Amino acid sequence: MNENTDKKQKSRRGFFKFMFGGNREKAIQRDGEKCVQCGMTRKEHKEKWGRDITVDHINGSGCNSKVKNSSLDNLQTLCLSCHGRKDNVRRKEYSRNRGINSPDNIRDIKRLYKTGKYLQKDIAKMYECTERWISRITTHY
User: Fold this and answer.
1) Which of 47, 105, 110, 122 has a beta carbon 3.0–4.6 Å from 118's, enabling a disulfide?
2) Where residue 37 falls among pLDDT bands split at 50, 70, 90?
3) pLDDT tens, residue by residue, 119-138
4) Residue 57 three-state SS
5) Is residue 40 helix, strand or coil?
6) Whole-angstrom distance, CA of residue 106 vs CA of residue 113
7) What is d(CA 124, CA 139) in angstroms, rounded to the nearest whole number?
8) Positive or negative torsion for Cα 62, 65, 70, 72
9) Contact 107, 97 (CB under 8 A)
10) Is 67:61 a contact under the CB 8 Å cutoff?
């Protein structure tokens, strides 16, 4: 291994530790080294894509979230295709629901939820958005 490759590997390990709290490899091993959606193995993934299989934050609370959750129960092994499909669904949901992301709406949604009088599905109906989006607001903002 040459010096540049060695530096790149160390840098990547540091990034994965930041992204997954040291649980990336544990998640891959727990999932049998294959995509939990389609079953593609780690070896098949490396042959097809030229890179290691990916690990996903199930609830989307990765390094770009205010509240990070890299616990093993929030991680899943996905191939690039399945991971991309999941991210596209999340992006579409964000586009559909972004109108409720004003600071006033977020404050009001959190207040309603904290009273205990309303379930997330009730608040989602009030704001005409998905229950999943309300869940993100009440747990990540």
Assistant:
1) 122
2) very high
3) 999 888 888 888 888 888 88
4) strand
5) coil
6) 11
7) 14
8) negative
9) no
10) yes
